[in-house]
Amino acid sequence: MVPATDAVAQMVWWFDEYRRLGLICRDGEFYPSVHYPPITMYPFASERALLGSYVPPPDNRFSIYVHIPFCLKACAFCHYPVKFLAPDAEMERYVDTVFREMDLWRERLGVDRIPARSILLGGGTPTYLSPGLLERFLDGFVSRLDLTRNTQFTVDVDPVTLLGDPGGERLRIMRAYGIERLTVGIQSLNDDTLRRMNRHHDASTALQCLQASRDAGFTLNIEFIYGYPGDTLDDWRAVIEQAVTLQVEEIQLYRLKMIPYGDRTAPLTGGFRGLNRRLPDPREVIAMKASAHAILNQHGFQENLGRVFTRDTSAISRYASNQCCGLYDQIRGHW
Ligand SMILES: C[S@@+](CC[C@H](N)C(=O)[O-])C[C@H]1O[C@@H](n2cnc3c(N)ncnc32)[C@H](O)[C@@H]1O
Ligand code: SF4
User: What is the pLDDT of residue 334?
Assistant: First the structure.
């Protein structure tokens, strides 16, 4: 029987129980298992082997992800494939390569335009592209797609890229090309945490970005990381108490992943001890998630998909749910 009545204490109790039963690996660290084996372990596969007997899904639509791997500077926690301060010419070349890859898909599928079910432009930071290049990219991208039955068009953004005149210009361009939803990497609303994350913005800058995006007509998903070295349960609770006051449709809570996977290790993985901060104890990390859960529930947000909280199920990331719940076919541009 679970002895505690409080939801947070119950979650920690379960954690201890699982650990006692030997079901918790590496003292509470966790392995993300998006796919197994990791991408880097896949053997070479020819197009024929991969797509020779391919039959399009019954609704003849595709969930589309394009990775734009450019950023301003390295956030200490980030393990995504990214490149910093790339020269303009390289970003231009990348955009052209995405178009070439899309053309190969059109040819392979025998369609003039690829029918989209949902779209996510992720990264990296797609909005790191200059307004001019962003416009050129979106122009070529949407002209190769059939958007008539598309359900959601989202872009990942870093808050600083949507500020000032260039930021306003990017917001205008994205609206003009049919993007209606932004995922904003807020990460924390605690300035000390943001400094330790090596983010290039503080909390008030992130809030300005949300306001500008909201004013431009976007629906908003914001992302936070919990279990960060140096954070306490109280720090984290304060962040979530503030988050629920913001005008956003979706809140995603990422537990900090320290164990490397895929092809890149976060700078933090090797260096967090050098920050002279402790990594929160796994029991405390579990308590962080459980407290956030309770606060979000009190304000009408439900965890409608793992780590994804919304008040209304229609606001859920379509890309995420198509991928994990719908198991739909995806076209991933990951160059
Ligand atoms: C692909 S990143 C794009 C975010 C965007 N470029 C920005 O910086 O605001 C998507 C999200 O993954 C999360 N993330 C990245 N590295 C992580 C890690 N090591 N552990 C947990 N979450 C992580 C962050 O919350 C981030 O906002
Ligand atoms: S968190 Fe975002 S801005 Fe930071 S390195 Fe990763 S993709 Fe780039």
Answer: 59
